[in-house]
Amino acid sequence: MNLFGLVEFLNDYPEMSIKPLRDGDITLKGKFKFIASFNGHPSIEDSYSLELVISKEFPYELPKVYELEGKIPRDNKHHINPDGTLCLGSPLRVLMQLYDDPTLNTFAENCLVPYLYSVSHKLHYSGPFIFGELEHGIQGVLDDYLDIFGLESPKQVLDVLFLLGMKERTAHRQPCPCNCGRLLRRCEFRFRIDSFRDIAPRTYYKNQYEELKSYKLKNLKKS
Question: End-to-end alpha-carbon separation of the chain, Å?
Fold first, then answer.
């Protein structure tokens, strides 16, 4: 079974192999080798020992990627999450990279290799991540969503996610998150919001809304 382009991925990365399934997830483990260069930066050939856990809900649940040998420093400068997974970008940003071709090879080429290249570049040449850096955790996700949606405040991000969790017709009867004072159906911002409906189902945006709302409420209580 060539689930998510698994056969092509294993052909392109032959030192990765399938491990026993658990709860319907696929686990890939082994040496991940790559050669890459980006934006005029030098070509880098490197490898990392990785474990990828791919959910049956892929791509709406993104793969969890672990680096196994400690080659990537466990500090706040190399973007490893508290649970040990690699921080490859905000969920929606990664999903947008997979939209045209939701396969493991697209995930590897568009998300995993750029991250590993940035790490290898940083370890060899020092300096910041060459693709820029977000704040760690949910705050970084909120900041990236501000950029993705073209908004100015976290509340607007939450409003957009809330509307994307509704049926389109219902959402168009709500106030527009751009703060123009009009209903969404009377504002051109509706075209930007609606463009994201093809990227993920309503349940995805509902989950994102609940997660970010919970974070925002916790931080409001602390302040």
Answer: 51
Q: Could you say which residues of the chain have pLDDT below 70?
A: 1-2, 133-134, 136, 216-223
| DSSP strands (E only) in 75-179 | none
Residues in the chain: 223
- Contact yes or no for 199/208 (Cβ under 8 A): no
Report residue 202: phi and psi, to 5°: -60, -35
Q: Please state the pTM of the whole predicted model.
A: 0.88
Instruction: Go through the domains of the chain in sequence order and give each one's CATH number.
Output: 3-125 (3.10.110), 137-222 (no CATH)
Q: How far is CA 209 from CA 26, 152, 181, 182, in A?
A: 27, 17, 22, 22
* Distance of alpha carbon 14 from alpha carbon 96, whole angstroms: 27
Nearest to 79, CA basis, from 89, 68, 92, 70: 89
Give the pLDDT score at 215.
Answer: 78
Residue 74 class from Cβ within 10 Å (0-12 exposed, 13-18 middle, 19+ buried)?
exposed
For the record, the structure tokens of 133 come out as: 């850096």
Instruction: Give residue 108's pLDDT.
Output: 97
- CA 132 to centroid of chain Cα atoms: 15
Name residue 166's beta-bridge partners: none
pLDDT tens across 59-74, in order? 999 999 999 999 999 9
What's the farthest any 2 CA atoms get from each other in the chain?
Answer: 56
